[in-house]
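quick q for whoever's on today - can somebody do inverse folding on this one?? i tried earlier but teh output was garbage lol. C-alpha cells:
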C-alpha cells in the first residue's frame, strides 16, 4: 500500500527542561525525520502555554529549513485570525524563496492560546473591520499569486515555487471551504477522531473537488511492545472546558481550564476530562491501522502528531515507524 508519512511536532517542554531544550529536540527530530524518509515536518502555534515552546512557527520553520535539505517544512498551522493575510503571505513567500519547493503554509481557525494572548495579539485590530476566515483565505490566494496585474500590494519576494496551501479542519464546513478556495484539506483527526464525522468530511471534500482526498492527521506513538505503548499513552489526558457563551476549548489539565475561564472573565464553567485518541502499540500494529485507514478512506498521506512525551520517546517512535517502512515512498 502506498501512502506518504509526515510529522507534526509541538515542541513540548519536559519537566525540568527549558524552552531551548524543547526546541533543540524538535530540530533533532526534523533532521532525523528527513534521514528516515518522512515527507513533511510541520510545527504548531501555541501562545501563552508554558509547556509548549513553539509560539511562532514561521521563525522555527526558517531554522528547520536551514538545518535540513530535502524534507518539506511547514506550519500546522498558522492561527490566521491573529494576523494580516498580507503579512502571512510575505513571510511564506520569503521562506519559499529561501527554500523553493519545500515550504508548506498550513492555517487554522482556532486561537491557539488563552484569552489574554489572543487579546494581546489582536490589540491593534479593529473588530468592525476584521475579515472573516473565508475572506482571509481569499486574500491569501491573491497575495500568494505573484500576479503583477492585480491592483493590490504585492507580497514580495516572489518565490520560484509558491508555498503549498493547507487548511486544517475537522468538519464538512471546513471541507467545503477548502475546496471552494482551492486549498488542500488536512482533517484534524488528532483533535476530532469521530469516525462518522471523518467519513462525512472526506466525502464532502471529494464531492467538492471532483475526487481529491484530504490528508489525515492522527496522533501516533510506537514503542517496543504493546504494553509499553499502552502504559505511556494511558497517562495522557486532555481537559475540555465549556464556557457559558458556548465556547469550548481543549487544555492540558484542570488548572489550565480554570485559568482559561479566569482570563475569559467567567466563573461558571464546566470541565470534561478525556483520554486523547492516540494510535499506539508496536510499529507493526500502527502500520496495520494506517493500512486499514488508507484502504477504507483512500488516504494518500498521514501527518502523525507526536504526543507530548519525552524527546527520546518521540525520536524512538519515528525510528520504529520508519523501520516498519510504513510506505515511506518519498
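ok took a stab at it. sequence:
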Amino acid at each position: 500500500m502506498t501512502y506518504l508519512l509526515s510529522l507534526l511536532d509541538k515542541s513540548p517542554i519536559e519537566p525540568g527542561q527549558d524552552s531551548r531544550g524543547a526546541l533543540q529536540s524538535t530540530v533533532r527530530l526534523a533532521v532525523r525525520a528527513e534521514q528516515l524518509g518522512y515527507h513533511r515536518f510541520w510545527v504548531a502555534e501555541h501562545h501563552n502555554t508554558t509547556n509548549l515552546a513553539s509560539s511562532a512557527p514561521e521563525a522555527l520553520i526558517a531554522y528547520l529549513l536551514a538545518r535540513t535539505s530535502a524534507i518539506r517544512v511547514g506550519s500546522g498551522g498558522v492561527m490566521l485570525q491573529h494576523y494580516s493575510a498580507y503579512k502571512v503571505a510575505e513571510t511564506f513567500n520569503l521562506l519559499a524563496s529561501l527554500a523553493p519547493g519545500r515550504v508548506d503554509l498550513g492555517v487554522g481557525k482556532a486561537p491557539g492560546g488563552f484569552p489574554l494572548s489572543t487579546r494581546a495579539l489582536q490589540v491593534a485590530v479593529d473588530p468592525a473591520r476584521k475579515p472573516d476566515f473565508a475572506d482571509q483565505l481569499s486574500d491569501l490566494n491573491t497575495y500568494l499569486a505573484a500576479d503583477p496585474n492585480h491592483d493590490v500590494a504585492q507580497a514580495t519576494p516572489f518565490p520560484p515555487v509558491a508555498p503549498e496551501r493547507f487548511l486544517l479542519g475537522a468538519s464538512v464546513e471546513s471541507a467545503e471551504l477548502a475546496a471552494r478556495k482551492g486549498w488542500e484539506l488536512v482533517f484534524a483527526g488528532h483533535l476530532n477522531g469521530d469516525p462518522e464525522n471523518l467519513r462525512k468530511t472526506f466525502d464532502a471534500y471529494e464531492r467538492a473537488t471532483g475526487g481529491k482526498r484530504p490528508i489525515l492527521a492522527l496522533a501516533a506513538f510506537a514503542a517496543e511492545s504493546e504494553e509499553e505503548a499502552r502504559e505511556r499513552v494511558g497517562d495522557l489526558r486532555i481537559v475540555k472546558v465549556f464556557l457559558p457563551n458556548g465556547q469550548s476549548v481543549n487544555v492540558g489539565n484542570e488548572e489550565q481550564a480554570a485559568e482559561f475561564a479566569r482570563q475569559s472573565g467567567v466563573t461558571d464553567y464546566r470541565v470534561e476530562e478525556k483520554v486523547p485518541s492516540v494510535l499506539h502499540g508496536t510499529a507493526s500494529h500502527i502500520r496495520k491501522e494506517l493500512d486499514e485507514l488508507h484502504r477504507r478512506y483512500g488516504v494518500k498521506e498521514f501527518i502523525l502528531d507526536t504526543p507530548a512525551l519525552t524527546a527520546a520517546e518521540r525520536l524512538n517512535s519515528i525510528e520504529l515507524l520508519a523501520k516498519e517502512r510504513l510506505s515511506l515512498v518519498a
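fwiw The chain has two domains: 4-234+277-323, 237-274. also Residues 237-274 form one domain. so keep that in mind when u check it
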